[in-house]
Amino acid sequence: MTDLIKHEQRDGVLTLTIDRPDKLNALTNAMYMRLADLLFAADEDDSVGVVILTGGPSCFSSGNDLVDFLQQPPTHLDSPAFRLMRAVTHLQKPLIAAVCGAAIGIGTTVLLHCDQVLVTRNAKLRMPFVNLGLCPEFGASLLLPRLLGQARAARLLLLGDSLDGSEAVAWGLANEVFDDGAQCLAAATRLAHRLLAMPQQALRQSRQLMKQASMAELQATLREENLLFIERLNSDEAKTALNALLNRSTDKHSPKGNQP
C-alpha cells in the first residue's frame, strides 16, 4: 500500500500525491502511516522548504477506505490516522493543498491545517461525521466555528452539507479556485516557489507565531475528539450507519471511500 503515496522532491518543494484513483484516493491505515512518515522526514530535511499535498488532477481524497477502516478501526491515540494528524499539526514548514475534485471527511478537515488551499470548481468538500454516527476529527470542532462562525460550521459538521470550489473560497475554506486540475496543480507549484523565495527563517518563525497561540488548545481538542471518535465507532448508531454504507457501496460496485 505504501506505493499509493507518491512523493517527488524538486527545487526545495516536496509534493505528496495520494495515488489511488480507482478508489477515489480512499485512505488506508498503511497510507496514513506513509504520509505521516514522509511529513516527519520532511520536517528534518533541510532540503525541503515547502510541502504540497494533493490527490492529482481529478480527486483529492474520498476519506477512509471503508473496508480497511472497519477491519482495522482506530483503537488508541497512536493509530495511523491520528499519527498523521500529529505529523500535520507539528509540521514546521509551509503546507499547501491542491484540491481537485472530492475532498470528503479527513480530506476536508486536513485543509484546516494548511497554509494555503487551492481548489477546482468541481471540488466537493464534505464532512459526513454525524451522518455516520461519528463525531468531528482533526480539530474541526474547534477550528471550523472560529473560521466560519457557529451557524455555518453547523451546516457542515452537524448537517453534513457540502461545498463546491467556489463556495469553499467564498466561505473562507480555500484561497483560490481554478477551472481544472492542471491549473490548480500548476498554481500550487508557483505558490510554493513564492514561499521558497522568502527569507526562510523569518518565514518559519512567522508561521510559528501564527499557530503557537492556539496550539495547546488544538492538541487538547484533538485528544478529546479522537477518544470520542474511538468511542463512537463502538456505538450502535455508527455500526448501523457504516454497515449500511458498506452494503450500498458493495451493491453499486463502487470504491469504498467517502468516509471521514
TrEMBL record:
<dbReference type="InterPro" id="IPR051053">
    <property type="entry name" value="ECH/Chromodomain_protein"/>
</dbReference>
<dbReference type="InterPro" id="IPR001753">
    <property type="entry name" value="Enoyl-CoA_hydra/iso"/>
</dbReference>
<dbReference type="InterPro" id="IPR029045">
    <property type="entry name" value="ClpP/crotonase-like_dom_sf"/>
</dbReference>
<dbReference type="Pfam" id="PF00378">
    <property type="entry name" value="ECH_1"/>
</dbReference>
<protein>
    <submittedName>
        <fullName>Enoyl-CoA hydratase/carnithine racemase</fullName>
    </submittedName>
</protein>
<dbReference type="GO" id="GO:0004165">
    <property type="term" value="F:delta(3)-delta(2)-enoyl-CoA isomerase activity"/>
</dbReference>
<keyword id="KW-0413">Isomerase</keyword>
<keyword id="KW-0576">Peroxisome</keyword>
